[in-house]
Every structure is written in C-alpha cells, then in structure tokens.
Design brief:
This protein has helices spanning 16-29, 47-56, 76-90, 105-111, 118-134, 161-170, 181-197, 218-229, 235-244, 249-261, 277-286, and strands at residues 2-6, 33-36, 62-69, 95-100, 153-157, 173-176, 206-212, 266-271. It is of the alpha/beta class and 288 residues long. An 8-stranded parallel barrel has the order 1-2-3-4-5-6-7-8, surrounded by 8 helices. The chain is globular. The termini are close together.
C-alpha cells in the first residue's frame, strides 16, 4: 500500500511558503501523493491552485484532489481542461482527479447550485470529463492540452451505491473520504460488485483518507482544526472525527496496517497543521 500525505491547503493560517516547502519535503520523504481537501466557505486554498503551486516545485510525486466537489464547479469541460493543464505543467501522468458531490449546504448556496441536482450533475459531468480526456466524441481533440504519459487518472468518491456505480462506469477507481478500515473493506466489496456489473476487468485503484497531528502540540492542533472544520456536522460528530486523528507513531502504524489489511491501495494522511515538521514526523512514523 502506498502512503500519501495531504497538503495543508485547508488548514487556516498556512502560508504560500509553507505550502511549497511542504510539497518539496513530501517528495523528498518518499510519499506517493500530495492530496487536497475542497471547501468553498472556509479560509482554505482552492485545490487546483494549491496543486499548481506544488507542481512547480516537485517532479515525481502524484498530485491529487482528494476530493474535488465537482458540482460546485458547474462546468465539467472546464474541470477536464484544468486537469489536463495541471497534468501537462506537472510533466504528464502524475495527476489524479478525485471527485465527489459533497454535503455542505453553504458551499452549494454560495455557488448558486441546487444540492438536489448534484448527483445528476456528476453523472453528466463524468461523461464529459471522460470524453474530453479520451479525445473522442463531440469535444475530442478540441479541449486541451492533450494528455501525455497516460494523462490524468480519475477516482470517484462517496459511500452510497450510486458512488460505486459512477466509479465503475466512469472512473479508474474509488476513493473513500473518511472512516475506518472496516468501512473501507465494506466499500471495497460494493465497488467490486459494481465493477463486475459494469463489465470492468482487473483490480481498480483505491484510496482512503485519515487525519494526523504529531509531536508537541499535535493532538491540540487536531482538536482545534478538525472541530472547526467539521463544526457543520455538530459537536458530537466533529469531536469523533477529531478524536480519530492519529496523534502518535503507534496509531499511524495501526492505521497503515489496518487499511493495508482491508485491501486499500493508498492511504493519504491529512495534516492538522501547516508546520513542515509534520511531514518529517509522519514519514518517520510510517516507516518511509
């Protein structure tokens, strides 16, 4: 199983210098992927902007939205073009579009998008993205730059049946937003059924997310950040998420072992602080 790390793009107060220093350190440490989290109504960096900054200072590490809230962008062709552009600037073949629908009412309200239409948008949007990337259909070859070295890859996020069906119809694989190794194992079984029903062969790529905050002040940073970030879910749920963050090396190792045993292809740890020392602490804890 690969071990990725999230950029601190959604951690309030992170500076541009911290973001690019983090990206360099993550590549040097041997992490597989730099991920981003997506929100509109929050003091966070927009994922594509953050990944563009990371692309400019790295050469190998994958660059992933994990996930982008697709319907908030409204224009699927623009999403396809943005990722083709990012992939070309990054050298080709190292970008991953993780995409899902999201669930925050304020993000949808400020974007002028109806939450009731988000599933339909994603179904149609994935068709458009796939068509443009493949170079076929009405838009084939017209929206570029053209992909190289395989171009971007696509992971569909979500935990409802429709998400697994979308992943099987349109995606290269599936990404689980949050949860335990047991949750992942259950989702993987649903993905397998949807994959077979769609006539897909092989084993699809998969990924999952977890949070961490290590060293002195790590637990406090996790509590502060995650209780704020997930406040819209209520104090109890936000507290549970904050409490699930890995705050020591033993918990990191347990999460790695648990998700690997569950069949996960990549586990991406997201930070609670923009301090680049967190990159080094996680690399050591994860055995990189």
């Amino acid at each position: 199983m690969d071990i990725g790390i999230g950029l601190p793009n959604a951690v309030p107060g992170t500076t541009g210098d911290q973001l690019t220093e983090w990206a360099r350190a993550a590549e040097e440490a041997g992490f597989s992927t730099l991920g981003t989290i997506d929100r509109i109504v929050y003091p966070s960096y927009e994922p594509m902007v953050a990944l563009s900054a990371a692309a400019a200072v790295t050469e190998r590490i994958r660059l992933a939205t994990s996930v982008m809230l697709g319907p908030l962008r409204q224009n699927a062709a623009e999403v396809a073009k943005q990722f083709l552009s990012l992939d070309a600037l990054a050298g080709g073949g190292r970008t991953v579009l993780g995409i899902a629908i999201g669930g925050r009412k304020d993000d949808y309200e400020i974007s002028g998008v109806s939450m009731s239409e988000r599933g339909a948008w994603l179904d149609a949007g994935l068709d458009t993205i796939h068509e443009i990337w493949a170079g076929g259909g009405e838009h084939g070859g017209k929206v570029g730059p053209m992909p190289s070295n395989g171009g971007p890859s696509l992971l569909v996020g979500g935990s409802v049946d429709a998400a697994f069906e979308r992943a099987a119809r349109h995606g290269d694989g599936w990404i689980m937003g949050g949860g335990s190794p047991d949750d992942f194992k259950g989702g993987l079984e649903k993905l397998g059924s949807a994959w077979s029903a769609a006539g897909r062969d092989g084993k699809p790529p998969t990924a999952a997310l977890s949070y961490f905050g290590l060293g002195d002040g790590g637990e406090a940073a996790s509590n502060t950040y995650l209780n704020d970030y997930y406040a819209f879910l209520g104090d109890e749920v936000a507290g549970m998420i904050a409490g699930s963050a890995a705050n020591d090396a033993d918990t990191i190792k347990a999460y790695v072992a648990g998700f690997e045993e569950a069949g996960c292809g990549e586990l991406i740890f997201f930070p609670s602080s923009g301090d680049v020392e967190q990159v080094h602490l996680l690399a050591e804890a994860a055995g990189l």
